[in-house]
Write a structure and sequence with these properties.
Shape: globular
Number of helices: 12
Strand content: 25-35%
Length: 670
């Protein structure tokens, strides 16, 4: 190749050539193998990295030594023998250079994954559990947060950049997953061994992108999709669609129209300014959605304003603006000054207001809300207050609103008419974080050398409505991950979907109930556990804040599966079998503990019964020892029973005496 010095081209070419030749000139380590890491006790350890081909690498750790010669691909891997819990230790890795890692612990490592309910941080629940946050001084509980990156390319050797091990303190714990933190705290306080959490979760993700290509073996539909996703022409078409490049025609989607500027910030006076004079604003009752109050199916920006009369006793005081849950993003102002912003409906908004900002008398609150799903606004039954240490003002009620911007959504569902369709029955515009293998490749595969104790999984909301498919995919994921880690049937503990959405007071079908049933049936796989969460949710909250009970129930299963706890009641009643006797059905359960009981009422509720016609009606139910007897005078020849079969089975009250709820179930497939 003839190289000429022609400005930037020469510089780029030089860098590319020399980065390729010398990218592994020194020993390098993956981010997981770093200062403060927790290594898995009582199992062989793999330490790996990169160096120059042929370079010898030596490791010394906790009195153990190992060595390896780097392969032609620039990779090396050293196995160390199993070691007992303890630390802190130092690890020295030597090649042409020397790396010393410090503050290393040996304990138990859990891979924590799923979607937004696993992501939900302690920051979101700090108002609910202030003492737990203040007391979070646990230097031996450590978190490794994996940044969200997805890719269909299956050759990633390293997790997304920017991750490190962080010990739990009252400040750092705010970035821990709440569910996994309460799990870790329970285990640590019980067994006093260091706990490492690898937090690899993604808001809104389905289960499909978490499974590897090998995990889909025999599933033709998904195998065909994966072939498409790894096709270069298809990926190029997606890239052009995202950037708006390319001419119209096969494979090109054309430039996307751009929305007009936000009127709230592009005019002569921003709408949050205290000297802005509002014109043509409309009334809005907060809380509520704009779709229900005069703005139909808007994807865009709506501004809200309200003048609040602050008493003299609150003026000049430091305060907090509580806006709880907003769909989806907000920027909030008081008296023309921005006091906070959040980009997600999942965040619990608590904005600090400096003492100098509030004044006695009228104060202006302005909230800019952006939503992309046509139903923006403020969730009901939440906290919307302006508060000082001793006083608060309820912000619910009459506000004013005005539309600032209409966002244009023009994502094509597929190639233009006449263009070749991609294989697998999938759209030509697809994101790697929603489709098979996309997240596994980047956020799971690079961690599979790292020895762990087990898996925690909190996901399913995005797959609700596809329960039959989920019943196949969840076992596939469990088997896939166990195969990839090559550590046997590692404990896999998952959270069953909580109660959510409006209560239905008539027997009906439910996509959420069906997915809970798919979860329950997955317990047929060895060494699996399920934390029942049917009593921790809220009708209007996809992300319930009670992650303490969730974490504790996960930990109880871990005690049973991973820590050998004897005589422990680790779960609520689980349906086992039924026996039909005339017009009654007797149900048997495992995990009855000290006995079955009702909670909050003397009568059992939310049992349904059906005959051969599969038409379910409400049933009477009573506890008889360790069984539940179910019947209805309107069903002479019953065949099957359902319990808590609804999106939100409000009032379902079968528990064991240890206070753990029974899992929803049905006794026969419909």
């Amino acid at each position: 190749m003839k190289l000429t010095n022609k400005g930037p081209f020469w510089a780029i070419t030089f860098l590319l050539i020399f980065s390729g030749l010398y990218s592994y000139a020194e020993v390098k380590l993956p981010q997981l193998v770093s200062n403060g890491m927790v290594l898995q006790r009582d199992t062989k350890l793999k330490i790996w990295g990169w160096a120059s081909p042929g370079e010898k690498v030596n490791i010394a750790f906790n009195g153990k030594k190992g060595s390896a010669v780097t392969g032609a691909d620039g990779k090396w891997l050293i196995e160390l023998p199993a070691m007992k819990a303890g630390g802190p230790f130092t690890m020295v890795i030597k090649g042409k250079n020397e790396i010393t890692l410090s503050d290393i612990l040996l304990g138990d490592v859990w891979f924590c994954s799923g979607q937004s309910n696993m992501v939900l941080r302690m920051e979101a629940v700090k108002e609910q559990y202030p003492e737990d946050v203040a007391s979070a001084n646990y230097p031996q509980i450590r978190n490794f947060y994996v940044r969200n990156v997805a890719d269909f390319t299956p050759t990633h050797d390293e997790l997304p950049a920017g991750a490190k091990w962080v010990a739990a303190t009252p400040t750092s714990v705010l970035d821990f997953s709440a569910a996994s933190y309460y799990f870790a705290r329970h285990i640590y306080l019980k067994y006093h061994v260091p706990i490492g959490l690898i937090a690899s979760a993604w808001d809104g993700s389905a289960i499909e992108p978490w499974i590897s290509a090998e995990g889909y073996k025999g599933m033709t539909k998904f195998e065909d999709q994966i072939k498409t996703f790894t096709d270069t022409a298809f990926l190029n078409r997606i890239a052009r669609g995202r950037t708006g490049g390319g001419a119209r025609g096969p494979g090109g989607f054309g430039a996307r129209p751009q929305p007009a500027p936000d009127l709230g910030t592009s005019g002569p006076k921003p709408w949050y300014a205290i000297d802005y004079v509002p014109e043509s604003w409309h009334h809005f009752w907060l809380p509520g959605y704009w779709n229900d109050q005069g703005v139909k199916d808007l994807n865009g920006v709506v501004w809200f304003r309200k003048e609040v009369n602050v008493p003299a006793s609150m003026g000049g005081q430091a305060a907090h603006l509580y806006l709880s849950r907003i769909a989806d993003a907000d920027v909030s102002y008081i008296n023309g000054v921005q006091v906070g912003a959040s980009g997600s409906i999942y965040n619990n908004r608590r904005y600090d207001i400096p003492a100098s900002l509030l004044k006695p008398g009228k104060n202006l609150i302005v909230i800019k809300v952006t939503c992309n799903n046509g139903k923006g606004g403020f969730l009901a039954d939440k906290d919307y207050t302006l508060a000082t240490a001793n006083e608060k003002i309820d912000l619910r009620g009459d506000w004013e609103y005005k539309v600032g911007q209409v966002l244009i959504h023009n994502i094509p569902a597929g190639p233009p008419a006449g263009a070749a369709q991609p294989a697998g029955g999938i759209p030509a515009f697809v994101a790697a974080n929603t489709a098979p293998t996309g997240i596994y490749n980047t956020m799971v595969a690079p961690a599979t050398n790292y020895a762990i104790k087990g898996f925690l999984w909190y996901q399913g909301e995005t797959n609700a409505g596809r329960a039959k498919e989920y019943a196949q995919l969840l076992p596939a994921l469990i088997t896939d991950w166990r195969n990839k880690w090559q550590l046997g049937d590692l404990p896999f503990i998952f959270v069953q979907l909580p109660n959510y959405m409006e209560a239905n007071y008539s027997p009906s079908e439910s996509g959420w109930a069906e997915l809970r049933e798919a979860d329950r049936k997955t317990l047929s796989l060895p060494n699996t556990g399920m934390a029942v969460a049917i009593d921790v949710g809220n009708w209007n909250e996809l992300h319930p804040l009670d992650k303490k009970d969730v974490g504790t129930r996960l930990a109880l299963w871990a005690e049973h599966l991973a820590y050998g706890a004897k005589d422990l009641v680790y779960a609520g009643p689980l349906y086992q079998s039924q026996k039909i006797d005339g017009n009654k059905i007797a149900l048997s359960f495992t995990n009855v503990g000290g006995g079955l009981m009702t909670k909050g009422s003397n009568e059992l509720s939310y049992f349904e019964i059906a005959g051969a016609d599969k038409k379910y009606v409400w049933a009477k139910a009573t506890i008889d020892g360790d069984k539940v007897i179910v019947w209805s005078d309107s069903v002479a020849n019953p065949v099957s029973v359902r319990y808590a079969w609804a999106d939100n089975p409000d009032g379902a009250n079968l528990y064991n005496k240890e206070g753990l709820p029974a899992s929803p179930f049905q006794t026969a497939d419909n």
